[in-house]
Amino acid sequence: METDTFVRAITHRSADGRNNERMEFLGDSVLGLIITTELYRRIPRASEGYLSRLRASLVNEGALAGIAAELKLGDFLRLGPGELKSGGFRRKSILADALEALIGCIYLEQGLAQAEAFVLGIYGQRLVDLPAEMELKDPKSRLQEYLQSRGLELPEYSLLTVEGEAHRQTFTAECRIPVMAIVTQGRSSSRRKAEQDAAARAFEQVAP
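and the corresponding structure tokens:
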């Protein structure tokens, strides 16, 4: 039987004033505690930085939305007419928030032990196949560390162009490594992401 708490957990703000936003806020904290504790137990010698990056990779919007899709959570969501027409049940942000709200619901109704059992169950193999520390570092950090370890000069970044209207701009950035005659470009919706894209392309050339 559906409880009031569960109904709220699957209700998007577009459908009702009594929605899952507060429960999502709670579930986010519960999820963070459970994943942090599990990583702490599983990798006793991992550094704080590695643990933080691992946790971030496991609880980010993409990871949560992927798990929610596997659970077919979108089929149960209560959405307003606008979100239904625009395919809100497939939107990553809505799926991720709903999963966190569901975790908050389980915590409220059954306690931390059951919430932990649920979270560890849905994460499953993800907690076994954990990425190596280097894989989790952003492209700019990876490129910088690679060059530093070989005594080479650090890359230079510059913004080449900004295109589009203010609310929908595309940035093109350049990454230049003069000593290796490497010049790459990256494009994205922000300067930071464009630089990361350019750095990733450069890293592919310096460390194939």
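(Above: one complete record from the training split.) The chain has a mean pLDDT of 92.
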